[in-house]
From TrEMBL:
Signal peptide: none annotated. Its EC number is 2.7.1.31. One of its GO terms (molecular function) is glycerate kinase activity. InterPro entries: Glyc_kinase_flavodox-like_fold, Glycerate_kinase, Glycerate_kinase_RE-like, Glycerate_kinase_sf. This is Glycerate kinase. Gene3D superfamilies: Glycerate kinase, domain 1 (3.40.50.10350), Glycerate kinase, domain 2 (3.90.1510.10). Belongs to the glycerate kinase type-1 family. Keywords: Kinase, Transferase.
Length: 395
C-alpha cells in the first residue's frame, strides 16, 4: 500500500449535501470517492451523509445513528395518497421530513398551486410518530409545496378550523379566507408531553416582503399577481393564531419557513426552531469523525455568498477549522462572488461543470463530473502538501 510522504495513510472525510434534483448525499459521496481513488487508491475515505433540514434529513440522521425506518401512507400536498417514511432513533426520537408528505417533489410542475396544497399529511406523519411513544419529534421542514401556515397539519392533529357557520373549512391557503374560529379542544393530547423540534435554515417571518408568500411562493406555482393575496391569507391566519395563543408569530423569525408551517408548529405544537445543520451535525457526531482527518470535502448543489446562512457545507467547515483542516467544497454551480464562503472556512470551491453545457447536461452527467471534481480535490491537496513541504526544507 502506497504511503504518502508524511508516513501515513491519508484519511479523507466526505460530508456533502445532496445536489437537489440531481443526486442524493449518498450518491455525491460515492462519486467523490471514485475520483479520489483514481489518485489515492489506498486512502481511508469516510463518507458521512449530510442534510440541513431539507431533503435527505431522515436518511442522514438514521444512517449515522443506526436508526430504523417507518413507512406510512399519508395525504399528499394535493390530497393524493403518498408513501412517506420517517425514522426512529434511540427508540425515543422520531425524525420526520415534511417534504415526504407535503413536498414539491410529490407533484408535477404544472400542478403546483400554493392556494390548494396542504400540510395535512405532515400532521399525519407527526401523529404516526406519536404512536411510537417517542419523547421528541424532530421535523425537517425544507422543500415544501405548501403555503397554508400549517393549517392542514393542525387539522390532522385534531384542531378544528371553522367558518362563521361552524363548518370545517377545507384545505390549502385558499380556505383560510373562510376561517372564523379555532377550536383546539380535540388536539392530540400527546403533544403536551412530546418535545417538537424544527430544523430549518429559513429565517423569514410569516408575512411581508420577506415573508413566506413573497419569497417562496413563486417556486410553488404562484404568479406575481398571487403573492399579495397569499400574503394576506397568511396574515389573517397569523393574526388569529396570535390572539388564540397570545404569542408573536406574524413577524417572528422562522415563522415563514415551509409556507408558514413554522408558525403553525410553534402555535399548535409549542415547537422550537433551530438551525438545521447545527442540530444534524450534532446528531451524526461529525466532529468525532473529523478530528483525526487530513482533508475534509463537502459540497452542495449551488454555492454563493448566501451559503453562509445556515447551509450544510459551512457547518462542516466550521467544525473542520476547529482542527485546522483544509476544506474543499465540490458544488454543482458557483456564484460569481464567494468572499463570504472563503472567509468562513472553505479553502477551495470546485464547480463540477468543466466546459460550456446546459443545466440538463450537467444533471445527466453528474456522476462523472463529480468524480472528476473529486480527483481535482485530492490533486490540489497533494500539491499543497508538497509546496509546504518544499518551503519547510528551504527554511
Amino acid at each position: 500500500m502506497e504511503l504518502l510522504e508524511w508516513g501515513g495513510t491519508l484519511k479523507i472525510v466526505v460530508a456533502s449535501d445532496s445536489f437537489k434534483g440531481s443526486a442524493s448525499t449518498f450518491e455525491i459521496s460515492d462519486y467523490i470517492e471514485k475520483g479520489i481513488r483514481r489518485v489515492q487508491p489506498d486512502a481511508i475515505v469516510l463518507k458521512i451523509p449530510l442534510a440541513d433540514g431539507g431533503e435527505g434529513t431522515v436518511d442522514a440522521i438514521v444512517t449515522a445513528t443506526n436508526g430504523n425506518y417507518v413507512t406510512k401512507e399519508v395525504t399528499g400536498p394535493l390530497g393524493q395518497k403518498v408513501k412517506a417514511k420517517f425514522g426512529i432513533i434511540n427508540e425515543k426520537v422520531a425524525i420526520i421530513e415534511m417534504a415526504e408528505a407535503s413536498g414539491l417533489t410529490l407533484i408535477k410542475d404544472e400542478e403546483r398551486n400554493p392556494f390548494k396544497t396542504t400540510t395535512f399529511g405532515t400532521g399525519e406523519l407527526i401523529k404516526a410518530a406519536l404512536d411510537y411513544g417517542v419523547d421528541e419529534v424532530v421535523i425537517g421542514i425544507g422543500g415544501s409545496a405548501t403555503n397554508d401556515g400549517g393549517a392542514g397539519m393542525a387539522q390532522a392533529l385534531g384542531v378544528s378550523l371553522k367558518d362563521r357557520n361552524g363548518n370545517e373549512i377545507g384545505y390549502g391557503a385558499e380556505s383560510l379566507e373562510k376561517l372564523s374560529m379555532i377550536d383546539i379542544t380535540k388536539i392530540d393530547p400527546r403533544l403536551q408531553s412530546t418535545k417538537i423540534t424544527v430544523l430549518s435554515d429559513v429565517t423569514n417571518p410569516l408575512c411581508g416582503e420577506n415573508g413566506a408568500s413573497y419569497i417562496y411562493g413563486p417556486q410553488k406555482g404562484a404568479t406575481q399577481d398571487d403573492l399579495e393575496t397569499l400574503d394576506n391569507l397568511l396574515r389573517k391566519f397569523g393574526n388569529k393564531l396570535e390572539r388564540e395563543f397570545q404569542i408573536n408569530l406574524v413577524n417572528r423569525q422562522g415563522s415563514g419557513a415551509a409556507g408558514g408551517l413554522g408558525a403553525g408548529l410553534m402555535a399548535f405544537c409549542d415547537a422550537k426552531i433551530y438551525s438545521g445543520i447545527e442540530r444534524i451535525l450534532s446528531y451524526i457526531k461529525l466532529e468525532d469523525h473529523i478530528k483525526d482527518a487530513d482533508l475534509v470535502i463537502t459540497g452542495e448543489g449551488r454555492m454563493d455568498n448566501q451559503s453562509v446562512n445556515g447551509k450544510a457545507p459551512l457547518g462542516v467547515a466550521k467544525i473542520a477549522k476547529m482542527y485546522h483542516l483544509p476544506v474543499v467544497a465540490i458544488v454543482g454551480s458557483e456564484g460569481n462572488q464567494l468572499e463570504n464562503v472563503y472567509n468562513n472556512g472553505i479553502d477551495l470551491v470546485l464547480d463540477i461543470v468543466n466546459k460550456p453545457m446546459t443545466l440538463q447536461d450537467a444533471m445527466d452527467n453528474v456522476r462523472e463530473l463529480t468524480a472528476n471534481a473529486g480527483e481535482k480535490a485530492i490533486r490540489a491537496f497533494r500539491l499543497g502538501f508538497r509546496v509546504n513541504h518544499m518551503k519547510e526544507e528551504i527554511l
